[in-house]
């Protein structure tokens, strides 16, 4: 059963049978923007959103990052499936897979972010969402809708943090601006 998250809401990453999730995927989906073309005909304008994961230690120091220029974390536990530059197609346009049990013990928090590399604001991007999927079953655990949220070009989607021997996800929904993750690091450090 999926939880439709709102800003600041947390969800524990435990399975209904009491076990913990071991393999998760953060999916990001969106559609191209529909614009009027020549003679009023509708056409689509490509939108290049980028999903990224930032990995932090207990003191809030960035220890690794996964994004379109670095598709795998240093320990191999976090993998980006590749860059989609248009938003064409159905479902997840970009995904980041995380083997939670393999994440380095030094990493306490993973922060998932999205930015508009092509510069469009979220007020104009259609059907944008992020979701967390249990990779072992394919079941959607949580979803966060991003469309129509404002004139910003980047958003801190969610964080996954160690809680005891398991993990918890918190929907952040933090608005910021930036075309790459480097532009977003000051805003991300505020939500750790």
Automatic annotation (TrEMBL):
Domain of life: Bacteria
Positions of the TerD domain: 1-178
InterPro entries: Stress/Tellurium_Resist, TerD
Name of the protein described by the UniProt record: Tellurium resistance protein TerZ
Organism annotation: Cellulomonas biazotea
